[in-house]
Design goal:
globular, 2,3-Dihydroxybiphenyl 1,2-Dioxygenase, domain 1
Length: 119
Amino acid sequence: MPNPVLQFQILSKNPDETAKFYSDLFDWKVDASNPVGYRKINTGSSEGIQGGIWPAPPQALNFVQLFAGVDNVSAFVQKAVTLGAQQNIPPTTLPDGDEMAVLLDPHGISFAVWRRAKR
């Protein structure tokens, strides 16, 4: 399986202001109707990838994160750690059945691996 970038995520200490900025700038549609505070972005295009805005924890900086698609989240986390990555969020199953984990590469750059649930 190739490992495409499936989505982007913006982590922001001011997620509502960030959502308004990008919505006003690019006319992106932002949907915050979920119980976990995630703001799903629909760019309105079939090109490229979709994304979202997540509230950044107080100790974190604002940043953009890419999610690479994998067929086995745990296996890729183990491989990444072997290659020098650090696990930030362990493999986690989300309410919709998708699974993800967040890591830091050996240079401290945050990225995530993602497995979509079979629908």
